[in-house]
Specification:
Shape: globular
InterPro entries: aa-tRNA-synth_II/BPL/LPL, BPL_LPL_catalytic, LipM, Octanoyltrans_LipM/LipL
Structural class: alpha/beta
Active site: 150 (acyl-thioester intermediate)
Organism: Mesobacillus selenatarsenatis (strain DSM 18680 / JCM 14380 / FERM P-15431 / SF-1)
Strand content: 25-35%
Oligomer: single chain
CATH class: Alpha Beta
CATH superfamily: Bira Bifunctional Protein, Domain 2
Family: Belongs to the octanoyltransferase LipM family.
Number of strands: 11
Strand order of the largest sheet: 7-8-9-10-6-2-1-11
Distance between the termini: 49 Å
Pathway: Protein modification; protein lipoylation via endogenous pathway; protein N(6)-(lipoyl)lysine from octanoyl-[acyl-carrier-protein]
Helix content: 25-40%
Length: 278
């Protein structure tokens, strides 16, 4: 049986505005039938704090700390909470809602797409599995997250190893197209991460950071050997191919496409109107 060919883009390290603009542009182009479904890998320069579409910056984020650390800052078009993009592989998947392999519900589509990430972890020798909340209180906690920090708790079908979250993802659907993107942590600076959010007092911050250690973990903290970015890219590219039953072929952006993305980045994702609108 012939496997479907999807596009593959490895953007390398890009600015926060370019990263979000390219994800949005790929969603638009795929929706218009201009390119096949796409898997994209990328990094961030500078390291960046991204916040979810619905997050309230003034209430939750310490922008002074973001500046002191020299971090970039951007609001994502997807939901979820704050993510420090630093020592990680970031991925995005763009595919139409009408794709025959995509379930109609957000949660089930999430599981199908995340199968690629699961396979990637297994290729790195890590026993990852999907988090599925079992009790009603666990399910309720997913609806009402208490923390502004993304990796503070696993969501439905989030990837966990030894009970701790190793990848955080978010999804949006626009114009009949699914965009799912997320972070696969290689290493994590917890002190830096927790310095970026606002807390009622130091005691609460300390308690949350302590609890965080039991809930999230980076690959290199649990792997029996150091895994570098190139090795991670290879494993997760193969993981997506196997998990989704596809072939990934490199897709190169044209000059016109790059111009479009750069314009969108400047006009939208670098604007205070977008980033601080809540």
């Amino acid at each position: 049986m012939n496997k479907e060919v999807w596009g593959f883009i490895d953007s390398g390290d890009c600015s926060p505005s370019f990263n979000m603009a390219l994800d949005e542009a790929l969603l638009d182009w795929h929706g218009a039938g201009k390119l096949p479904p796409v898997v994209r890998f990328y990094g961030w320069s500078p390291a960046t704090l991204s916040v979810g579409y619905f997050q309230k910056i003034e209430r939750e984020i310490d922008m002074e700390a973001v500046k002191q650390h020299g971090l970039g800052f951007v609001r994502r078009p997807t939901g979820g909470r704050g993510v420090l993009h630093e020592h990680e592989l970031t991925y995005s998947v763009i595919v139409t809602e009408e794709h025959p392999e995509m379930p109609k519900t957000v949660t089930e589509a999430y599981r199908v797409i995340s199968e690629g990430i699961l396979q990637g972890f297994q290729k790195l020798g890590l026993e990852a599995y999907f988090a599925v909340p079992k009790t009603s209180s666990e399910k309720e906690a997913l609806k009402n997250p208490r923390s502004a920090v993304c990796f503070d708790a696993p969501s439905w079908y989030e990837l966990v190893v030894e009970g701790r979250k190793v990848a955080g993802s978010a999804q949006t659907r626009q114009k009949g197209v699914i965009l799912q993107h997320g972070s696969i942590l290689l290493d994590l600076d917890e002190d830096k991460l927790f310095s970026l959010f606002k807390y009622p007092n130091d005691r609460v911050k300390e308690r949350m950071q302590k609890a965080f250690k039991t809930k999230a973990v980076a690959i290199n903290e649990i792997s029996n050997r150091k895994i570098n970015l190139e090795e991670a890219k290879k494993a997760f590219k193969e993981g997506f191919e196997e998990g989704l039953g596809i072939i990934l072929e490199p897709y190169t952006l044209s000059d016109n496409e790059l111009d479009y993305v750069n314009t969108l980045a400047k006009n939208k994702y670098e604007s205070d109107e977008w980033n601080f609108k809540r």
